[in-house]
Design brief:
This is Transcriptional regulator. By secondary structure, the protein is an alpha+beta fold. It is built from two helices and seven strands. α1 crosses α2.
Length: 101
């Protein structure tokens, strides 16, 4: 991988963590619990109570047993399985899913 692409992927990973954190906070407002987003270089973990979603650079798994392929594209979009959407729209949908189950 070239250095520019590696740097871009790190920036996208950081951006993904940020939008997940923002939408998780919004969706947990007024609830008994607050969502927590833990970030490392290898994974991002979104937790809400006993439910969780784990993101790696190529997969999503959840406490509900769901598994999906995952990628952040060079144009700043998120691809989940065969569906690609704007990063913030995908993060909002996933945060809502885990918190409002």
């Amino acid at each position: 991988m070239n250095p520019h692409s590696d740097l871009l992927q790190r920036e996208l990973w950081s951006s993904w963590a940020g939008v997940l954190r923002s939408y998780a906070a919004v969706h947990s407002l007024g609830r008994d619990q607050h969502a927590v987003v833990e970030v490392s270089e290898a994974e991002i973990l979104l937790r809400y109570g006993s439910r969780w979603m784990r993101f790696t650079h190529d997969h999503i798994t959840s406490s509900q047993g769901a598994e999906h392929t995952f990628a952040l594209t060079e144009n700043g979009r998120a691809r989940i399985d065969n569906t690609e959407d704007e990063m913030d729209l995908s993060a909002e949908r996933l945060a809502r899913e885990i918190i409002t189950l």
